[in-house]
Amino acid sequence: MAIRLNLPPITRGLLLLLIFQSLLSAAVHFQSPAEDLVIPYITLIPSMSLIYPWTLVTSTFVETNILSLAISVLTIWHGGRYLERAWTSREFAKFVAMVALVPNVYTFSTLVVMYAITGDVTWSLTPISGTTALQVALLTGLSQLLPTHTITLFRGILSLRLPRLPLLHLLLVTLLALLPIYTVAAPLLSLSGFLTAWAHLRFLRLPLPDLDSPGPLRGDASDAFALAQFFPEPARPAVEAAGDVLAKLGLAPKTPVVVASAGSNQGGGGGRGEGRGESRE
Predict the structure, then answer these.
(1) Which CATH number fits domain 9-206+213-221: 3.40.50.720, 1.20.1540.10, 3.30.70.660, 3.30.1300.10?
(2) Which of 64, 95, 260, 276 has the fewest Cβ atoms nearer than 10 Å?
(3) Which spans in the chain are helix H?
């Protein structure tokens, strides 16, 4: 009896890409078992991969050990399947492309700057790969859809709401980098993956049309998805104050953004759309 994988197309493709590239990386390491081997055409290496531009995206889907590969498969299988069905394949594909590219570019740039400052070649040879950014991005997306959902661990000893998980992911990855089990690239990917995912969903993603608005609304202006909600309560006033400062400086756009349409000047819908744009970060 054939096994049916009940997965939407983008999620299925991501899993196949992840498994294929991870196996390819493992095969190369098996043939050349040097401890410091780097593969610039599979993983993103700051000093070597400029001639392999596809690695800016595809290196996200390369894991170098069986444990991280298993975690990545489970994360994409469950998180990707849920989000793709909730958002449509097109919107999910745009989200994945954003959180694969931007964190890699940020991490690449940071390592290059650190190499330029210190002259330490270790920075320029640090491999950038793995689904770290995608993992925290999927957690952020799930936090938007299920802001009150609670995860219970250790038979009820520990309960966490979904919006707590992205920062917990960042703290865990940072700890593993300090041990060091992960490279310094991992916390950079986790931080930038979280911020990229949140900014995309907060300001850019196109939800279902709003018939009362002058045009389609981009973003999520709800208080439940404000950046401060991802932080513990004692830290929220500082995060909100920082958001207010950025907004006054014009560095933080208002949400949601109304996309102009042919009927944007008709009727009274414009007032309601503009009113929504006044929500505070």
Answers:
(1) 1.20.1540.10
(2) 260
(3) 9-31, 55-58, 66-75, 81-87, 89-118, 121-124, 132-145, 165-178, 185-199, 236-248, 269-276
